[in-house]
């Protein structure tokens, strides 16, 4: 017992001592942990230095393969492989691609040779942003500076992506590439233009050059190495050296302007260094040029501009042409005796020339200008349906064939400057017609020709269905919603009649600022009014209208819509934190205009713009759009949720009169509509008809609640690995 008491006393004394000195113990433990962390960090860095050889270490060390690439089991994979793209007319680029592939294969790296004609850049290039591959582009310049036939589609897609402000400037960020152009300097004006353009377009989309662009010259008198083959061999040696360095995980030497091993600038890498202009300076400095990586994202330094220095010459040239055109049109004033007409004509010519300047400067990327004030553009959903990848929400809601739809406008001008405008306010604005007026026959003929020419360019493109390509040449629908305010065009009724005479259905969109024009409008297949807000304050903040009496015009436009007998639609664009909390006010506006349908769509973010403060935070998720629609439907007893198109983040509310015997009939019988229009024409307007006379049953897959979520099961849905890079169309 005494022994046990002594032990307990000793144990108690120890516990008391530990408690009294606990702060010293805590400090010792903390010191021990700190020392352990320092030792681990030092050991890791030492191992890394042993595993990853420095650039100055000899290539024969045991930690590397003989080809200069570090063994994959020893470190992470810095280069997964090389993909060699070629566009060739005579076979030279293809021959060079095979030669380069053999050299890369000798480095124990996977290599793939790809003919641009057989490659879909829209799908493939995005995947290369995370593949760790190096992409090499060997492309020739053909007649008049055009790409070879095999590279036409590749170049066209790349150009459109680079110049379309709806495509984020970081679209290809992560893709690493090198370009070798093939050309003949005897053709001074077009020497190696295709290689230069591909290099610039990739750079504009934030792809990273691993080395400066090189150019081979078929003109032996001017070729730096005596022939285009020798030019290629010299570049190939440099490329392989750079590839080996990348395999070892080496980073770019510096961010300055490097020549002959000396860094002349410690600042941001200049564009002139990264994309040296062709000519004497480039030819003279090729041998001494250091390798580096650069992309537009890095070089932009966080600014909104993505203008390449190499573009400045072209841009200035276009500006000079625009100024010449401006002066020619402004001063080309005809002698008129009527007092005051001289000044009016002067103003009209000035505004027209201003519009032409905008077009020349490529502000309307991808648009085809028609006459003086109209335009046409190929919708991305048209391209999608040509490939069997599904149609737009109008296909789901109303049964249009997206690949047979022409998106156009007879008026590029608009009376609003909406914050979510996907044109970034590059189109002119105005409250009345200022332009010299083109005739409707001319507009329609040229629109169809330009649309069909754009469709024909898809012939032979990978994935395009031949049957649908043939169908697409016969336009069946026209969406008068491309840009601007179509209803401003004074001859809009004549244009609509011409479209109907050719069996083309009409979907016309107005911004609810021209109530009298809405009343005078003859029947169209479906008339839309954009209802972007439900209160005067929020409409002013979102649409930024030019009219001082915009709210009264807005309400009058809705009243005018209620007078229409054909199909009418409210189009609501939800902008999170701007207009999603006004449900009761929206319900009041719906009772005013009594639309047949209500489309509710989440806003599409179209990139940064100095004209708008909109960000991705303002884009609602599809679940949020769905919740909004369900709450709105509870306030509208005469409406129900009929359809959904998840891919467009869009839902459709339809009036109960379109639910017959328990089945929704939101689709359109287009043949019946054309019959009704002809009957009206023959009666001189006495025969009227209503929306109920040309409805069609909505298929089960298009209905709200269907497992397809609005995607046509006849097509195959394509989803990118990185869905954040997706961009929306109309």
TrEMBL record:
Top-level class of the enzyme under EC nomenclature: lyase
Region entry Disordered, spans: 48-67, 252-303
Flavodoxin-like domain residues: 82-240
Residues annotated as domain Radical SAM core: 398-642
Bilayer-crossing regions: 20-39
Residue spans of biased composition, Acidic residues class: 284-303
Alphabetized UniProt keyword annotations: 4Fe-4S, Iron, Iron-sulfur, Lyase, Membrane, Metal-binding, Nucleotide-binding, S-adenosyl-L-methionine, Transmembrane, Transmembrane helix, tRNA processing
Entries under Pfam families matching the protein: Flavodoxin_1 (PF00258), Radical_SAM (PF04055), Wyosine_form (PF08608)
GO molecular function, one term: 4 iron, 4 sulfur cluster binding
Protein EC: 4.1.3.44
Pathway: tRNA modification; wybutosine-tRNA(Phe) biosynthesis
Keyword Ribonucleoprotein: no
InterPro entries: Aldolase_TIM, Flavdoxin-like, Flavodoxin/NO_synth, Flavoprotein-like_sf, rSAM, rSAM_sf, tRNA_wybutosine-synth, tRNA_wybutosine-synthase
UniProt cofactor(s): [4Fe-4S] cluster
Residue spans of biased composition, Basic and acidic residues class: 269-281
Compositionally biased region (Basic residues): 254-265
Biological process according to GO: wybutosine biosynthetic process
Catalysed reaction, written as an equation: N(1)-methylguanosine(37) in tRNA(Phe) + pyruvate + S-adenosyl-L-methionine = 4-demethylwyosine(37) in tRNA(Phe) + 5'-deoxyadenosine + L-methionine + CO2 + H2O
Role played: Probable component of the wybutosine biosynthesis pathway. Wybutosine is a hyper modified guanosine with a tricyclic base found at the 3'-position adjacent to the anticodon of eukaryotic phenylalanine tRNA. Catalyzes the condensation of N-methylguanine with 2 carbon atoms from pyruvate to form the tricyclic 4-demethylwyosine, an intermediate in wybutosine biosynthesis.
Protein family membership: Belongs to the TYW1 family.
PANTHER family xref list: S-ADENOSYL-L-METHIONINE-DEPENDENT TRNA 4-DEMETHYLWYOSINE SYNTHASE, S-ADENOSYL-L-METHIONINE-DEPENDENT TRNA 4-DEMETHYLWYOSINE SYNTHASE TYW1-RELATED
Protein name according to UniProt: S-adenosyl-L-methionine-dependent tRNA 4-demethylwyosine synthase TYW1
């Amino acid at each position: 017992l005494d022994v046990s008491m002594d032990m307990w006393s000793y144990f108690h004394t120890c516990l008391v001592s530990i408690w009294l000195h606990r702060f010293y113990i805590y400090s010792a433990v903390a010191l021990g942990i700190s020392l352990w962390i320092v030792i681990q960090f030092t050991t890791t860095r030492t191992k890394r230095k042993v595993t990853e050889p420095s650039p100055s270490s000899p290539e024969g060390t045991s930690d590397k393969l003989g080809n200069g690439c570090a063994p994959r089991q020893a470190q992470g994979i810095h280069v997964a492989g090389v993909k060699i793209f070629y566009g060739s007319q005579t076979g030279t680029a293809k021959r060079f691609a095979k030669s380069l592939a053999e050299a890369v294969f000798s480095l124990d790296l996977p290599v793939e040779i790809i003919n641009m004609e057989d490659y879909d850049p829209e799908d493939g290039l995005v995947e290369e942003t995370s593949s760790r591959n190096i992409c090499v582009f060997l492309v020739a310049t053909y007649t008049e500076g055009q790409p070879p036939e095999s590279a036409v589609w590749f170049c066209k897609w790349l150009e459109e992506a680079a110049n379309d402000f709806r495509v984020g400037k970081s679209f290809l960020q992560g893709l690493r590439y090198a370009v070798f152009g093939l050309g003949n300097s005897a053709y001074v004006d077009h020497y190696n233009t295709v290689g230069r353009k591909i290099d610039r377009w990739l750079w504009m989309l934030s792809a990273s050059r691993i080395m400066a662009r090189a150019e081979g010259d078929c003109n032996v008198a001017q070729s730096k190495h005596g022939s285009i083959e020798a030019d290629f061999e010299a570049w190939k040696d440099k490329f392989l050296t750079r590839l080996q360095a990348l395999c070892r995980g080496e980073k770019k030497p510096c961010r300055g302007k490097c020549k002959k091993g000396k860094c002349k600038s410690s600042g941001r890498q200049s564009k002139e260094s990264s994309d040296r202009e062709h000519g004497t300076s480039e030819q003279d400095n090729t041998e001494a040029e250091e390798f580096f990586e650069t992309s537009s994202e890095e070089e932009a330094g966080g600014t909104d501009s993505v203008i390449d220095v190499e573009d400045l010459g072209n841009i200035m040239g276009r500006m000079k042409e625009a100024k010449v055109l401006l002066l020619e049109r402004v001063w080309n004033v005809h002698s008129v005796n009527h007092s005051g007409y001289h000044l009016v004509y002067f103003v009209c010519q000035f505004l027209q020339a201003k519009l032409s300047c905008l077009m020349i400067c490529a502000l309307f990327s991808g648009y085809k200008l028609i006459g003086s004030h109209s335009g046409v553009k190929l919708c991305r959903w048209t391209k999608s349906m040509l490939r069997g990848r599904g149609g737009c929400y109008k296909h789901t809601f109303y049964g249009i064939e997206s690949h047979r739809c022409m998106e156009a406008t007879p008026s590029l001008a608009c009376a609003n400057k909406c914050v979510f405008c996907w044109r970034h306010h590059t189109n002119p604005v105005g409250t009345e017609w200022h332009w010299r007026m083109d005739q409707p026959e001319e507009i329609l003929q040229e629109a169809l020709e330009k649309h069909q020419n754009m469709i024909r360019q898809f012939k032979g493109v990978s994935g395009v269905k031949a049957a649908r390509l043939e169908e697409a040449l016969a336009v069946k629908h026209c969406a008068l919603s491309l840009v601007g305010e179509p209803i401003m065009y004074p001859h809009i009724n004549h244009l609509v009649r011409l479209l109907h005479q050719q069996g083309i259905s009409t979907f016309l969109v107005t911004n609810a600022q021209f109530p009298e024009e809405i009343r005078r409008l003859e029947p169209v297949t479906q008339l839309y009014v954009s209802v972007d807000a439900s209160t005067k304050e929020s409409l002013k903040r979102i649409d930024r209208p030019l009219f001082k009496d915009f709210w009264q015009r807005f309400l009058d436009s809705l009243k005018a819509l209620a007078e229409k007998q054909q199909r009418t639609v409210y189009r609501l664009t939800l902008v999170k934190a701007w207009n999603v909390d006004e449900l009761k006010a929206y319900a009041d506006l719906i009772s005013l205009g009594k639309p047949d349908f209500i489309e509710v769509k989440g806003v599409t973010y179209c990139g940064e713009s100095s004209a708008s403060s909109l960000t991705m935070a303002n884009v609602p998720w599809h679940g949020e759009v769905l919740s909004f629609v369900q709450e709105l439907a509870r306030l509208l007893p005469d409406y129900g949720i009929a359809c959904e198109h998840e891919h467009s983040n869009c839902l459709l509310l339809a009036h109960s009169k379109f639910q017959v015997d328990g089945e929704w009939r939101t689709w359109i019988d287009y043949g019946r509509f054309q019959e009704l229009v002809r009957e009206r024409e023959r009666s001189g307007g006495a025969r009227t008809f209503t929306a109920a006379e040309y409805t069609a049953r909505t298929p089960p897959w298009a209905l709200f609640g269907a497992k397809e979520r609005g995607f046509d099961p006849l097509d195959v849905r394509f989803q990118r690995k990185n869905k954040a890079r997706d961009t929306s169309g109309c």
